Amino acid sequence: MANSYDVVVIGAGTGGYVAAIRAAQLGMTVAVVEKQKALGGTCLIWGCIPTKALLEHAHALKVIQNAKEWGVTIPAGTPAIDMGQVHARKDKIVTGLTKGVEFLFKKNKIDWIKGTARLAGNGKVDVFDGDPPSREATAGKHVLEAKQIIVATGSQPRSVPGITIDHKRIITSDEAIHLKEVPKSLVIMGSGAVGVEFASIYRRFGTEVTIIELLPRLVPVEDEAISAELEKSFRKQGIKSLTGTKVTKATATDKGVEIEAQTPDGKTQKLSADILLVATGRGPVTAGLGAEELGIQMDRGYIKVDPLFRTSVPSVSAIGDVITIDGPHPQLAHVSSMEGVITAERIAGREVQPLNYDHVPGCTYCDPEIGSVGLSEAKAKERGYDVVVGAFPFGVLGRAKMAGETEGFVKIVADKKYDEILGVHMIGPRSTELVAEAVLALRLECTVEELIRTIHAHPTFSEAVGEAAHATHGAAIHM
Length: 479
Ligand SMILES: Cc1cc2nc3c(=O)[nH]c(=O)nc-3n(C[C@H](O)[C@H](O)[C@H](O)COP(=O)(O)OP(=O)(O)OC[C@H]3O[C@@H](n4cnc5c(N)ncnc54)[C@H](O)[C@@H]3O)c2cc1C
Known about the structure:
Blueprint: E1 4-10, H1 16-25, E2 30-34, H2 41-45, H3 48-65, H4 67-70, H5 83-107, E3 111-114, E4 116-121, E5 124-128, E6 142-151, E7 155-157, E8 170-171, H6 173-176, E9 185-189, H7 193-205, E10 208-212, H8 224-237, E11 240-242, E12 246-252, E13 257-262, E14 268-273, E15 275-278, E16 282-284, E17 298-299, E18 302-304, E19 316-318, E20 323-324, H9 333-347, E21 362-364, E22 370-374, H10 377-382, E23 387-393, H11 398-403, E24 409-415, E25 421-427, H12 431-443, H13 448-453, H14 463-472
Parallel strand pairs: 1-2, 1-6, 2-3, 6-19, 8-15, 9-10, 9-15, 10-11, 18-20
Antiparallel strand pairs: 4-5, 5-6, 7-16, 12-13, 13-14, 17-18, 21-22, 22-25, 23-24, 24-25
Helix pairs in contact: 1-9, 3-5, 3-7
This protein binds flavin-adenine dinucleotide (FAD).
């Protein structure tokens, strides 16, 4: 195996492995250092893929639980979930995908260097078997030389002050995807995408679920109408939501967790649960990387980059969950991949443009699903637009009635002056797929009128997007 490469990538998550493939496609010699036993990072091993696999199991159970409505007869007894089979199926999907990345590395002649990387300066990367020893220790097991280095070391779960994660009773998403048994009760701290997805999974599996959210509403990054609809649906499903509430103490015992929380009126509420899932966000993985020693500018542990993902040290770039950039930076797989493509192309000398973070789709796979892109109604007003909105409920559509999935709506936020679409927010069936049309609409600076003139096939869920456009002009056809 060579020691000298055009590009060395540190980390083989959705940022790193995509950057590596794009760099190889553009004719560069590439190595990727990855410390895990499999390629694919958080998304493939602990995140997007295994959680969505569990959600598909929850959906299958939902359909079977409603067998009578579908005219399907099943032998007497209550349908239940077999966690052994659930994990076997999920693990098979994960392994298939991580092996797929290995295949792509071979196809593109990318070397996978197994081990933990540390930046050593002067275009050098030390690679160690375990965690890197201190800087003063002897040189690394393997030294790589690179003309360009891309850091894509990602993120890991983090707690909040005062809450100690013991990985048994007080857990993170890394443990929540591996639970061997369905807990009787689960309290979830945080109602971002991770929190509400696990709420949907375990509620459907039969768990008593309570979500505690510090801010006044669930999924606080979404448009307010989406939060309200989700809270309504969760209430119907028996998921309790305590918003504006702060967990102040959590103590693991032999039997479960004792939790104290401060409610909006300042009172203390006590809760007991089998498990507390801490889903309050993720922090950067930069410990032991040698970034600070190299003089790379950092911010609260994150690597600071410019709009084209250059760090303060020439020939070192950084992408994905590990970076901070001017303005909000969503920690999402598709964001890290696009940053990887842009970085590889810039290094190859291609002309590239900064990413427009207003055009990043957000997909939350709870039940009902959420898909959104662009400005919420409140954000659009904050930015000074003369805002007009229109919404259309899925429940009116023939396709939704046939599928028995009638919750939710599509809402469009537009600028009255130029009729430009500023944001599209949807909650309901297939929203994580339907949002793709809205992403393209924003990218092409589409007007509401153009969306009205775009033909939406019948009968489909996508008719809700066309009808929401009509509604924005005050004239929905089927309402
Ligand atoms: C439960 C959960 C569900 C999620 N669901 C979604 C979703 O549905 N859609 C979505 O878009 N996003 C989702 N995400 C977020 C998504 O997984 C991340 O945004 C994405 O994985 C970030 O990619 P990355 O390449 O920046 O980092 P990571 O995927 O974290 O990869 C970093 C890699 O670097 C390796 N590494 C770190 N340090 C070193 C070192 N010194 N040497 C060698 N290797 C190193 C790590 O082992 C890891 O493999 C989810 C996350 C979680 C936790």
